[in-house]
Design a protein that fits this description.
By secondary structure, the protein is mainly beta. Among the domains are: 18-146, Cupredoxins -  blue copper proteins (Immunoglobulin-like, Sandwich); 447-565, Immunoglobulin-like (Sandwich), CATH 2.60.40; 585-737, Porin (Beta Barrel), CATH 2.40.160.
Length: 738
């Protein structure tokens, strides 16, 4: 009996193996030179099989994938992660976590069964190689084609800088606002006045929020399939084309639109959704959306991807004939009010996400005074389906309407005809996505809840989960066969596209049981989003923000099954995991004026900082002073300080606290070893985009106090020049940041 059972199992396995088709690819990574921006050729570029994007890999559900990855990069190791693909954890492609790194001259063969269909992609998980060019599309066809269309068109979106991404990361660690000059997005008093937003500007400064951060990096180009603009005429009028749109950008969200008509979205992150019409959709890094498009006669329709920060776009023209452009988007409001409020208010959500004021309704279009609020159930209203812009308010007699008879909570806004033939979402997000089938789990399955607060310090450019970087708190441990629920609480001003390797999860939204399945979810600023998945893929899997620079500065974890024990090879590699290194960065400054000179050097990792500063003043003869401080940051506003200081021949050891006050005043309160008090107060005033003042006041007990005020012109981050005032003199000079 035992032998018959073994023979049966062997026969079944053999027959399945014979039936599976092996699809093999070879990918070779090389380093080269290329000009993608149209401005200059750069030499840090990494390519797979000589192209950016890398080749499209095509499979059919049920295939056996065999992908040989060769590293011919002379000076760097290599990796590739198969994004959104369900596979064995050892094939996932994250070096030092579940797959070995591939060193120069070596190769690695990935083998896995194709268990799904849809639009996916692949990219490096080493250093910042993804931003250098290691990314490409994966198309997996279903066993049985359920959606009728004639052709596929893969659309890979990306962002590109002519500056080496390794240096970009260093620049951001020097100053999180490093690229504001390049992007022309510096906020100022004059800018707020011109925008009639002085009240918002002062509120943001008072709450120490600064302003809205749409993106971190100033890019030189945005690309579709490696080009800023291109035309694809390989289609006949009347053909139905499936556009497979992938955001492979390092740190850019895109608004995607198609000509001047709504588009039919049929899939998100490789999972089918109930088709929905949308004028545009917002796609985060690592997300994918599929769109059905019928090629018109004698028309060339623009597919446009506009960066969320409004600094540029890329275009792909589909078809031949008269051009049909996509509409221009308004520039984002740099002075929108950044809501702080009570954090408990932010956490109020009904099964999905709480909208913040900047992501919710357009209150400017609503006559709030005339509305009977007592009869309106605002929480139950589906605002996403209301196109307030398209409504003809002139024909609405708000005064004669009997609001008491209107049950706004029970109205089905999705069925309201707002002047369009079918319901069209203005800007599609995950909140509107609906699975065609129920995704709900059985109530009897054990549940495990994990709260994950997303936050960071934009100025020092560190990004955290639950107040810690990955090197401080690596692992989230879960058990098999549970419903694991992650509640993402975004306490920052940036969007975070959170990706879980090796799994699909439900994004709990208004569609309840039919909430969509995804592998990456956008968590907007100051909102809460809930996902849940069934834990049946034992292994160790990365969970991280897919903003490349947020990942590299700490916003990541490893989700580990308690039952999973990595093999000896991977265990040995995990000891060298670069995610566990707290890397050191530097920032420096040199300033020279006719009455003043200063030099400063800061060395910092996530929570530790060493500050060395020396200063000369020429009020009545040159006099010098110097500080050497060690700072231990407790949070984005508070640090503990110990060190030493020398002024006019008096040396002292000091200890105290650094703290940022409302309106972004930086303070140091220090006591020296003789009990003498020192208080430093500093603030930058940005008058216009290029003119600023640095004001510094130092009070010293039993020693002279000092006041220094500059008036500087700054066109780029590194250089500024202007006037330097002290309490006794005026000078002219320049300042250099490095």
């Amino acid at each position: 009996m035992k032998y018959k059972l073994l023979l049966g199992l062997f026969t079944t396995f053999f027959s399945l193996s014979i039936g599976a088709k092996v699809v093999r690819y070879e990918l070779t990574a090389t380093k080269g030179k290329i000009n993608l921006s149209g401005k200059k050729k750069v030499d840090f570029v990494l390519m797979l099989n000589g192209s950016i994007p890398a080749p499209v890999l095509e499979f059919t559900e049920g295939d056996e994938a065999e992908i040989v990855l060769k590293n011919e990069i002379p000076d760097d190791e290599l990796s590739v992660h198969w994004h959104g693909i369900l596979l064995d954890p050892y094939m996932d492609g994250v070096p030092y976590v579940n797959t070995p790194p591939i060193f120069p001259g070596q190769q690695y063969t990935f083998k896995f069964k194709i268990r799904q269909h849809g639009t996916y992609w692949y990219h490096s998980h080493t250093n910042v190689q993804e931003q250098k060019g290691i990314y490409g599309a994966i198309v997996i066809h279903p066993k049985e084609k359920k959606i009728k269309y004639d052709k596929d068109l893969v659309v890979v979106l990306s962002d590109w800088s002519d500056e080496n991404p390794t240096q970009i990361l260093k620049n951001l660690r020097k100053d999180g606002e490093y690229y504001l000059f390049k992007k022309n997005t510096m906020r100022s008093f004059w800018g707020a006045y011109k925008a009639k937003s002085m009240r918002n500007y002062l509120y943001n400064e008072m709450t120490r929020m600064g302003g809205m951060d749409f993106s971190d990096v100033g890019y030189d180009a945005f690309l579709i399939n490696g080009k800023k603009e291109s035309t694809d005429t390989d289609f006949k009028p009347g053909e139905k084309v499936r556009l497979r749109i992938i955001n492979a950008a390092g740190s850019s969200y895109f608004y995607v639109s198609l000509g001047n008509k709504p588009m039919k979205v049929i899939s998100a992150d490789g999972s089918d959704i109930k088709p929905i019409m949308a004028n545009e959709f917002l796609i985060g890094m690592a997300e994918t959306y599929d769109v059905l498009f019928e090629v018109p006669k004698n028309r060339s329709v623009e597919l446009r991807a506009t960066s969320q920060d409004g600094t540029g776009h890329a275009s792909l023209w589909i078809g031949s004939g008269e051009k049909v452009p996509a509409p221009d988007r308004a520039q984002p409001d740099l002075y929108m009010k950044m809501y702080m409020g009570s954090f408990w208010e932010t956490l109020k959500y009904s099964g999905s996400m709480t909208k913040s004021p900047m992501t919710g309704m357009d209150h400017s279009k609503m006559d709030m005074d005339s509305m009977d609020h007592s009869k309106m159930d605002m929480d139950s209203m589906d605002h996403s389906k209301m196109d307030m812009d398209s409504m003809d308010h002139s024909k609405m007699d708000m005064g004669s309407m009997d609001h008491s008879k209107m049950d706004m909570g029970s109205m089905d806004h999705s069925k309201m005809d707002m002047g369009q033939k079918e319901n069209v979402v203005k800007t599609l997000t995950v909140d509107e996505l609906e699975s065609p089938e129920s995704t709900k789990f059985k109530e009897s399955i054990p549940k495990h809840d994990v709260k994950l607060v997303l936050d960071g310090d934009m100025e020092r450019y560190i990004w955290l989960i639950n107040g810690k970087a990955i090197h401080e708190d690596r692992t989230i441990t879960i058990n098999e066969n549970e419903i694991v629920r992650f509640t993402f609480v975004n306490n920052s001003m940036m969007h975070h596209p959170m990706h879980l390797h090796g799994h699909f999860f439900r994004v709990i939204n208004k569609n309840g049981d039919n909430s969509p399945l995804k592998h990456t979810v956008d968590v907007p600023p100051h909102t809460t989003r809930v996902i849940e998945f069934y834990s049946n893929e034992p292994g160790e899997w990365m969970l991280h923000c897919h903003n490349l620079y947020h990942l590299k500065t700490g916003m990541a974890r490893v989700v580990k099954y308690s039952s999973f024990i990595p093999n000896k090879e991977i265990k040995s590699w995990q000891k060298h995991d670069p995610h566990m290194h707290d890397h050191v960065y530097y920032r420096g400054m040199l300033e020279a004026s006719t009455n003043h000179a200063q030099a400063q050097l800061n060395l910092m990792n996530t929570w530790d900082e060493i500050e060395l500063r020396s200063e000369l003043r020429n009020d009545f003869g040159w006099q010098g002073e110097a500080d050497a401080f060690y700072k231990r940051w407790l949070n984005k506003y508070t640090s503990l300080i110990v060190g030493g200081t020398v002024i006019e021949g008096y040396g002292a050891g000091v200890a105290g606290v650094g703290y940022m006050l409302p309106f972004r005043f930086d303070t140091h309160t220090l006591i020296d070893h003789k009990g003498r008090l020192r208080f430093d107060l500093e603030r930058r005033f940005q008058w216009t985009q290029f003119v600023y003042t640095d004001a510094e006041f130092t009070f010293r007990q039993k020693q002279p106090s000092e006041l220094e005020i500059s008036l500087m012109y700054q066109k780029e981050w590194a250089w500024s020049a202007g006037l330097m005032f002290t309490e006794k003199s005026m000078g002219i000079g320049a300042l250099y940041n490095f």
